Amino acid sequence: MQSEIVLEKPALMEMLVRVLKKSRLMAPVKRGRVSFTFDWIGDSRQVVTDYVRTILPPKKALVPPREILLEFWREGKQGASPVIDDTPFVLFGVHPCDLAGIEELDLAFAKKNDVKDPHHAARREAVTIIGIDCMPDEYCFCTSVGTNRTRGGADLFLTPVKSGYLVEVLTSKGAALLGDTARTREPCAHEKAEAENWGKEKECRITRLLDVDVARLPDILETQYESEVWERTAKRCYSCGTCTNVCPTCFCFEVDDKVNLPLTAGSRDRRWDSCQFLDFALVAGPHNFRGERPSRVRHRWLRKFWYLYREFGRPFCVGCGRCTQACTAEISLTEVLNEIAGEVT
Questions:
Q1: Domain-ending residue, one of 205, 229, 264
Q2: Distance CA 105, CA 98 (A)
Q3: 44 and 179 housed in the same domain
């Protein structure tokens, strides 16, 4: 289903108040002077709608940085039980690039070889997602990877207009969430034009661009596997893993078993991991498949724009700019790609 309505500004807060009475709500809030983060909300007045990006992407709601997968015990009858969180919740304020990131997590956790991760699947079924459009800053390059108008994965999508928000009702879950919200109506022609102009203005403001069509990158990167760019970039990199931890589409994780002191019970825990860490590719022997920093640096770009692109038919980068903004060495993902592309174009 798909329809459009106008939600007047006071009605949005009323809707969020109603959501809080019925379920959990995760939304962007201000953190410190200039930063924003997705967090669980107790008061609708905490919610921010005019941010550019959060520190961590909203993937934290679907694949938490740390979670318990199962619990096991030895006392009495030995056994184990999965820990599945299927409590309904609303994820509000997701930008188009992050919606694209959620779609790509779906590919990784649910659609590869038709094997579903039950923990991700439970949260994906439990969530109702409200997207909202945004304006870029100097780090955004969503137009280069085609995510600037993404709607997939959202149940409702809001575009700011003078009277409030033009709301695209994309699913039955979205329609149910709106319910009998007051101060909604059919959009006028000028409001539809406003929403369309918002998207055009957004595209015009983006200044960080790839120099080549993103569809060419798998072939380019394959030919430039031995490029000196990787060595030069690695000399600046600290292998801190910040870039992958703030990324909406990175999904690598580590699994640990934790046992109590009497050795009678424990849990299997999952936590985010990073391919940029020295011991990420360490195996028995000991052998490290990517023990040298240039190979780890190269792997990150190749995974985003070659390996996963060819596997899933789309780049696993959504142009949000988080990695470049957060990098302590000021390494720009787009500048490295453009340098690589410049060697063959």
A1: 205
A2: 10
A3: yes
**Are 158 and 231 part of one and the same domain?**
no
How much is the pLDDT for 181?
77
**AA letter at 255:** V
**Are 305 and 312 a contacting pair, CB within 8 Å?**
no
pLDDT in tens, 103-122: 999 999 987 667 899 999 99
The larger pLDDT score, comparing residue 89 to residue 345, is at 89
Neighbour count for residue 76 (Cβ, 10 Å): 7
* Last-in-domain residue among 149, 176, 205: 205
Q: How far apart are CA 31 and CA 27, in angstroms?
A: 12
Domain limits at 228?
Answer: 214-342
Peptide bond into 248 cis (omega under 30): no
Is residue 77 a part of any domain in this protein?
A: no
**Residue in the block written with tokens 């959202």:** 154
Q: Tens of pLDDT along 1-39?
A: 579 999 988 899 999 999 999 999 999 999 999 999 999
Q: Could you identify the residue written with the tokens 């649910």?
A: 110
